[in-house]
Amino acid sequence: MFNVSMFESILHNYRRQYLAARATLPWLDAGYYPEDHAAFENFALPLEQKTVKSVVLRSETAAQIERSGICLWRWLPSESGTLSGLESLVGKLCECKLPLIVRQTDLTFHELEQFALSHPRLAVILESGPRKLLYHIHHIEAKMLKCANLYLSTYNFCNWFGLERFKTKGLLGRMIFGSHAPRFSPDAAMAPIIMGDFSWEEKCGLAGNNLRKLFGLPPEIPPTRTWQCPEPFVMDAHAHNVMPGSRNLFGFPTPDEDFTPADWITAMDRLGIEMTFLIPNNALADKNIGARECVLPLLKYAPERIRYLSVFHPSMDASQCARIYSELAEPSCVGLKIHPAFHKLEADHPGYAKAFSMAGRANKPLVTHSWEISGYNPAQQFAHPDRFKKHLSDNPGVTLVLGHAGGRPSALDAVANLCRDFPKTAVDVSGDYFDNGMIDCLADRLGADRIMFGSDADWIDPRCNLGPLLASRLPDRELQKILCENAQRIFLRQDA
Q: Which residues contact 425 (CB under 8 A, 6 or more apart)?
C-alpha cells in the first residue's frame, strides 16, 4: 500500500498524462447530439472536441444533400421512413461520398448486412441505440468482416479490450470516434483510445482521422504523446471473471475466456490497478458453483493482487449457505454479492434477509446490483435503490455497496436518500453509467467518501470508467479517495 504523499504523486502524473493526450489528439466527433442535453447539466463538462454536424435523412432533404458539404446523415425510422423507401436519397449520398449513420436498435443484423451489401459505395456507420451495444460484439465483428463499407462508432462501444480485439481483425481503420455528447461523457469513448495498445498514428485515426478519410480530408497528426503505465495503485471494487474454458456465459465473448492468471495481472498493470475485487460470473450464473473455486488459480498466482466476493442466491440450501459462511471467513473474501435483477426477486423480499445476516455476522460489506426502473428490462425494478430500505433498517450495522450507483440518472435521488438515511451505505461507479457530469454530481450529493471506482470488467472496459474520473473537476484528494482509499477502508478495513 502507498502512503498519501506517494499516492498523490502517482495520481497526479497519471491524470496529467491522460489530460495531455486528451488535449492533443485530433478528435472529430461523429456522435454529437446537441439536442440531447446532459441529465446533470450543472456538473457536465463543456464540449471541447471538434464535431461534425448531422441531419436526419428525410424525403424532402434530397436537394440539401448536394450542398451539405461535410455532414453526417442519420437514418431514424420514425422520421425518415423505411430504408427501402429512401433509395434515391441513398444514391445521392453515394454520389456525394457522404456516410449514413444507422442505429443498432433500429434494424436487425441481417437487415444491416443486406443494406450494406446492397450499397457497396455507401459508407454505413453503425451506432449504438438506447440499449446496450455490449452484448453484440461478435455479431458486429462478423458483419464488419463481411461488409467492407460498414463502420462502427465508438459511442457506447465499451467491451473490455474491444478496440484491441478489432485491431487483430484488421478493423481498427473502420472505427469512427463518437461520444453522444453532451448527454454522455466523451471520456468514456476517449479513454480506451488514449490508454490503448496502439501506435500514435492509430490513436489519431481512432480519434478523428478515420472519419476525415471518409470525407476525403487530410489526416491530422499532432506531436506524439506517449502513454506510460502508471505504477499500480487503483482499487477496482467491482469486477468479474469467468472460469477457464467458459464460453459466452452470458451470451457474448469476454477477453478472460482465454486469460491465464498472468494475463489478468498484465491487464491490471496496464491501467495502474493494484488490486481487483472479483465477483465470479460462473458463481452468479450457478448457485452450485462456489466463488472461491472460480478465482483459486488467480489467488494462487497473485495473492496480493486479487480478492473476491462470495455470491448469494435466494434459493440456496443449507449446504450452499454453509459454503458461503466458509468463504466469508477467508481473508481473501472481502464481501458478499447479491443480484436481485438477475434472480428476478425484489431486493426487499424476505429471501434476502439471510444475505444481510451473513454479511453482518462476517463484518464484511454486502454488494448489490442496483438500477433504475427500466422500460425495456422490467427485472431491473427488483434492484431499485428504494427496495433496500427494509433490510437496511433491520440490519443497521451492515455496509451496503450499491453497485453501479443506481445505474442511471433517474435513480439518483433514491441513491442519495438511501445514503443519507443509512450512513454505512456507499456506491461504486462500475458499469455503463457514462452520463456527463455523473462523477461530479455524485461527489456533490453523496460526498467523495461514499464513492468507489469499479470497472465491471470482464464485460466493461475499465478505461471507460477511468476516463471520466480523470477528466472530472474533482480535486486530486477526492479522486484519491474514489480510486483507492475508500475501497481500502470499506473492503480491506485499512486506512490509506
A: 388, 392, 399, 400, 401, 402, 418, 419, 450
DSSP letter assigned to residue 159: B
pLDDT in tens, 306-319: 999 999 999 999 99
Measured CA to CA, the distance from residue 408 to residue 435 in angstroms comes to: 8
Last residue in a domain, options 184, 214, 244: 214
Reported as a single tens digit per residue, the pLDDT across 311-345 is: 999 999 999 999 999 999 999 999 999 999 999 99
CATH number of domain containing 168: 3.20.20.140
Instruction: Say which DSSP state 484 is in.
Output: I
Give me the number of domains the chain comprises. Answer: 2
Rounded to whole angstroms, the Cα distance separating 49 from 455 reads: 25
List the one residue out of 454, 463, 385, 371 whose CA is nearest residue 185.
Answer: 463
Q: Where are the alpha helices (DSSP H) in 367-455?
A: 389-394, 412-421, 438-446
Decide: helix, strand or coil at residue 75: strand
Are residues 30 and 109 both part of a single domain? yes
Which of 214, 245, 274 delimits the end of a domain? 214
229 domain residue, yes or no = no
Beta bridge partners of 338: 368
d(CA 482, CA 493): 15
Same domain, 470 and 386: yes
When pLDDT is cut at 50, 70 and 90, the band that residue 495 belongs to is low
Quote the cell numbers at residue 488: 481500502
385: left (phi over 0), alpha (psi -120 to 50) or beta: alpha
pLDDT for residue 368 is more than 70: yes
Number of H helices and E strands in the chain, helices first, is: 22, 16
Q: For the chain, how big is the Rg over CA atoms in Å?
A: 23
Place of cell 468514456: 188
Q: Contact at 8 Å (CB) between 247 and 257? A: yes
SS3 180: coil
Residues 424-438 as b/e (b if ≥16 CB within 10 A, e otherwise) read bbbbbbbbbbbbbbb
- Under a CB-based contact definition with an 8 Å cutoff, are residues 426 and 209 in contact? no
Which structural domain, as residue segments, surrounds residue 285?
Answer: 234-490
Which one, of 394, 411, 404, lies nearest residue 368 by Cα?
Answer: 404
45 Cβ contact list (under 8 Å, min separation 6): 185, 186, 436, 437, 471, 472, 473
Span 292-312, average pLDDT: 98
Its pTM stands at 0.96
Question: Residue 19 domain-assigned?
Answer: no
Whether 350 is covered by a domain: the verdict is yes
Amino acid letter at 329? A
State the amino acid at position 413 in one-letter form. Answer: D
**Could you give the CA distance from residue 98 to residue 65 in angstroms, rounded to a whole number?**
9
